[in-house]
Design brief:
Shape: elongated
Strand content: under 5%
Radius of gyration: 33 Å
Order of helices and strands: HHHHHHHHHHHHHHH
């Protein structure tokens, strides 16, 4: 279990690199899937175009959506977009940055699939074989004597070598269409590469302060969500442990009274006492179910403002000040600033 926990923590700390690796694996999987995929053109005028174009587009959409599903930041983006503003306003630029970052990774596998499909040319041949001008490949009298319907049916059978009798015509037309398909594939790769180059070249021309701000706060939102989940797990574990201990203590009073007459105390009892104190500390003063439900509800409906406060107070006023300052902003408690010098305050503002 420790090894799995360490691996999980490593993946969490290197999530961006891990997602880039996942996208690369998906891209390689798309190419391998296409090579293992059995291409079967229907060779019918009514279905050739739909099958050929569908083979090019539908798997690309599936890979794109799969990239969104495997990206953990999608839930973070949706949660930040739908949450109530509360005390913390929402910055549209951060939402745009997160969406663009997710989209860029999700486009890798579809781009590889489209490129491999165009380079192979089978789907292109199936989709556009009926649009060929057969007269460009030679003077075939038997084709000229056919009606328009028979001619279209004949052209639709070109991708199927077991249905097309004229081998020479099939080889010539297949090479012609595959040549066009490969040219489109190289143009697509050139366009994608040029677009990526322009994005990387133009981005430094804009204000870097805005970019750094959006990048910082997008990372903050992700880290805050993870730490809140971890804190909730620790609190739930401690809450359950203390609740179970109290349950057993309430029903085993007689047995505990007998153990109190013993003249010695085991080291295990000391360890249990230390663990119990640790669990009590992790409860953070929240010991009632309704209070915990209120905490969770308020976290979603009214997240605290991002204004950090440095306080120097003595131990006697600690509990009182913490209780009064839960809803305070920028170090003001009940409308009155504390009696400390201004230079001791560090306040940070954000529009997240």
């Amino acid at each position: 279990m420790d090894k799995f926990r360490m691996m999980f923590q490593f993946l969490q700390s290197n999530q961006e690199s891990f997602m880039n690796g996942i996208c690369g694996i998906m891209a390689l999987a798309s190419a391998q899937m296409y090579s293992a995929f059995e291409f079967s053109c229907p060779c019918m005028p009514e279905y050739n175009y739909t099958y050929g174009i569908g083979l090019l587009i539908v798997p690309s959409i599936w890979f794109f959506l799969l990239g969104f599903v495997l990206n953990n930041n999608v839930s973070v983006l949706a949660e930040e977009w739908k949450r109530p503003a509360g005390q913390r306003s929402k910055d549209p630029s951060i939402l745009r940055y997160m969406f663009v970052s997710i989209t860029q990774r999700s486009l890798i596998a579809p781009a590889v699939w489209v490129s491999v499909t165009l380079m192979d040319g089978k789907s292109f041949l199936c989709a556009f074989s009926i649009n060929l001008d057969i007269d460009r490949f030679g003077n075939y009298s038997f084709i000229t004597a056919m009606s328009e319907t028979e001619r279209i049916k004949l052209l639709a059978r070109i991708p199927c070598k077991d249905l097309f009798e004229h081998h020479e015509i099939r080889i010539a037309t297949s090479r012609y269409i595959k040549c066009i398909s490969q040219a489109c594939g190289w143009m697509f790769l050139l366009l994608m590469t040029f677009t990526a180059f322009m994005i990387r070249a133009i981005r430094p021309c804009f204000t870097q302060a805005a970019f750094l701000k959006t990048k910082y706060w997008s990372h903050y939102i992700d880290i805050e969500r993870k730490m809140f989940d971890d804190t909730c797990k620790e609190h739930a574990k401690s809450f359950a442990k203390v609740c179970i201990h109290q349950y057993f203590e309430s029903i085993s009073g007689e047995m505990r009274s007998l153990h109190k007459h013993r003249s010695y105390k085991n080291d295990s009892d000391d360890d249990d006492e230390d663990n119990r104190r640790s669990d009590e500390d992790k409860l953070l003063g929240i010991r009632v179910q309704d209070d915990m439900n209120k905490v969770l509800r308020n976290w979603h409906n009214c997240k605290p403002a991002l204004a950090l406060r440095k306080e120097n107070i003595d131990g006697e006023k600690n509990g009182k000040l913490n209780g009064d300052a839960n809803g305070g902003m920028n170090g003001h408690v009940k409308g009155h600033p504390p009696d400390v010098e201004k230079k001791e305050w560090a306040v940070y503002y954000s529009k997240v």
